[in-house]
Amino acid sequence: MRLRLLAPLALAPLLTACGAQDERFGTAEQAIMICPGASTLQGVDVSHYDGTIDWPTVAHGGISFAFVKATEGVTFTDPMFSTNWPAMQQAGVVRGAYHFFHSTDDPVAQAKLFLQTMGPLQPGDLPPTLDLEVTDNQPADVITSTAEQWLDYVGAAVGLKPILYTGPSFVNGTLGNPAGLQDHAQLWIANWQVSCPDVPAPFTSFAFWQNDDAGTVAGVPGMNNVDTDIFNGSTSDLAALTLPAKATTGAGGSTTTGTGGSGTTGTGGAATSNTGSGGTTSSGPSSTSSDATSTTGSGGGGGSSSGDTNASSGCATAPGSAGAGAWIGALALLALGRRRRRRRECPILHL
Q: Is residue 5, in this structure, part of any structural domain at all?
């Protein structure tokens, strides 16, 4: 992330732009140094400041994941996001999008801009990230509460627990280690040029670590000024954080459940049921969006339909409210079933 230098704050160390300055995010008094586990993955985070990125080269250089800036505040959209976002996926880099937060702007409006810009997550995408590192001259309780509103809104919309990018000194010195913050997000800690990062309370672990703001990554323009990151886990651990892939099963049709797209359930290829946010079905540690909708129909009139035939047996069933045409069709099917009684027994149709 390429951010900006802040004015000094009372009771807080100087917090610098993420990747743009030499000043370190720093350690802090109420933090515990936690080293990564035995398995780690290399990553990078970028924005329009990094120019045009050659994502296939990035992937071939051993980068497994990347975060890219999408939005800031309530009006700014990163001009390179629309280029970076699909290119990352095409290159096979596990992708994540982040929003640079301002506590002086409406958190829900910021969340809506971010979600609209990012679009629906696809299977294999990382949860959305909130970049929290400026105060905008707001008190700690306002910064914390508005940030949590953004995290909760976005988490509910995508069905995944979001990621919070911040530094130890910001959480400790500026926010005062707000209780419960860890319930709203998983931690991406920025702590540069150290052997192991400091993890501030109330967090007790980290998922991602921005370990350098002056790295070099093949495919990313610039000399020794690239933000590099480490994932604290294996490839399977990283996959477990992403939007799950769809699973498809069915008999005579298909039953599809998953996230990042519409959910479809069918028997004989006839029935569908859709639930989600913006036409998607989401699952994860966070609740699903309250904007979720579902459609149900009868006799082929709605999204979820129960027709006039049993697809697994070919037998007639009660037509319900399907209309006069369905009654005639049902009677015809009943007669056909009786003629084929030696081949297949059908249940009695109660007309």
A: no
Say yes or no: 185 and 64 in one domain: yes
Please indicate whether residue 198 is annotated as part of the active site. no
Q: How far is CA 54 from CA 24, 81, 88, 218, in A?
A: 28, 14, 9, 8
Q: Where in the sequence is the domain holding 327, given as residue range(s)?
A: 308-351
Q: For residue 137, what are the contacts with CB-CB under 8 A and spacing of at least 6?
A: 104
Q: How confident is the model at residue 222 (pLDDT cuts 50, 70, 90)?
A: confident
- 223 shares a domain with 195: yes
Residues 184, 67, single domain; the answer is yes
pTM, rounded to two decimals = 0.66
Q: pLDDT tens for residues 203-215?
A: 999 999 999 999 9
- Our answer to whether residue 45 is catalytic in this structure is yes
Q: Where are the beta strands (DSSP E) in the chain?
A: 31-33, 41-46, 65-72, 76-77, 94-100, 129-131, 163-166, 186-190, 198-200, 208-215, 226-231, 247-249, 255-257, 264-265, 309-310, 315-316
Give the chain's domain count: 3
Catalytic residue among 133, 148, 227, 229: 133
